[in-house]
Write a structure and sequence with these properties.
343 residues, Rhopdopsin 7-helix transmembrane proteins, 10 helices, 2 strands, 2% strand, GPCR_Rhodpsn, G-protein coupled receptor, G protein-coupled receptor activity, transmembrane
Length: 343
């Protein structure tokens, strides 16, 4: 829990109902989308370019992150009670943080790559070989591992009330929350800068209507929108929690306790939204790599126009199906009314 006061521990009932369906939806769609992307990158997309290397590593980071989500879903389903032991708690938290950081860094690398090709087309970095790109990618992996390896060095498995917690965002571990915030701030700043500079350059050159250049601009705008939707809410909520605790606000009334609970509950929900980024990134591969899109259509024999003609409805129906089934399961386990019984 983000709250250090035991009297104001978050009630897990709401989170038990809300977060498992969300996390399992992110897991199913994320594994399918990123698994397909890895398969295409490995066996169908040849030869690789330097940009392909960054897209592949983005898909790898997202895929590995998705594999840890069922354990978080089980954690919330159990009423925020961890049942997989101390060692696996640290491993799962490290896996989530490392791959979330990797995803952020590779999105940033893709934005910088597009910026250099459009704004500085004659720069030597644009002739980077795939091998050199692999070295850059390895450097980014080393960076994200080193920033999060502290999660393996001390226990994040502790008792709070009648349950066992497994949390990396605690008031005792300021390093992790600081890394999380700085990763977001740095990456968002760079992505916004690249997007703005590309837009300005296209205006100056009068290339706004050129199809290939226009696609690059739309891709970066898509990355920016996905990034903000997935990461801004959790960072904003954490700043509010940090400011409240920095002021050493003492919890002396029920109102203070309710405010603390509301902030903690909001943070639990918004941190789960960060994993949505890994589910949505396969859309980025299609926009950034026309060859990836063509191969995907050829392999699956699908017409990607379904995204305009009903793809959103398919995603919505899949989510509702998962949610209704999990809600029904929860009702049997906890004796809670499911949706069909609610007044």
């Amino acid at each position: 829990s983000t709250n250090s006061d035991c009297a104001c521990v978050v009630d897990g009932d709401l989170l038990s109902l809300l977060l498992p369906p969300l996390l399992l939806t992110e897991f199913v769609l994320g594994v399918l989308g990123n698994g397909l992307a890895l398969w295409i990158f490995c066996f169908h997309l040849k030869p690789w370019k330097s940009s392909t290397v960054f897209l592949f590593n983005l898909a790898l980071a997202d895929f590995l992150l998705n594999l840890a989500l069922p354990f978080r879903a089980s954690y919330y389903f159990s009423g925020i009670n961890w049942g997989f032991g101390d060692a696996f708690c640290n491993i799962s938290l490290f896996t989530l943080a490392m791959n979330r950081g990797g995803s952020v860094f590779f999105l940033m690398a893709i934005a910088v790559d597009r910026y250099m090709r459009v704004v500085h087309p004659h720069h030597p970095i644009n002739s980077m070989s795939p091998l050199q790109a692999v070295c850059c990618a390895a450097g980014l992996w080393v960076l994200t591992i080193s920033l999060n390896v502290h999660l393996l060095t001390k226990s994040h498995h502790f008792k709070a009330g009648n349950s066992i917690k497994c949390e990396s965002f605690t008031h005792k571990d300021r390093l992790h929350s600081t890394v999380f915030f700085l990763e977001f701030l740095l990456s968002l700043g760079i992505i916004l800068f690249c997007t703005k500079q590309i837009s300005n350059q296209l205006q100056v050159r009068g290339l706004v209507k050129e199809v290939r250049i226009c696609r690059v601009q739309k891709c970066l705008r898509l990355v920016t929108v996905i990034f903000i939707i997935c990461f801004l809410p959790s960072n904003f909520t954490w700043v509010l929690i940090w400011l409240r605790n920095k002021g050493e606000v003492s919890i002396t009334s029920e109102r203070d306790c309710n405010i603390q609970k509301a902030l903690d509950t909001t943070f639990y929900i918004t941190i789960s939204l960060t994993y949505l980024n890994s589910m949505l990134d396969p859309v980025v591969y299609c926009f950034f790599s026309p060859s990836f899109k063509k191969i995907c259509k050829k392999v699956l024999k699908l017409d990607f126009t379904f995204m305009k003609q009903g793809g959103q409805q398919i995603y919505l129906k899949l989510y509702l199906c998962l949610y209704l089934n999990l809600n029904l399961f929860l009702s049997h386990q906890h004796g809670l009314p499911h949706l069909t019984q609610a007044s």
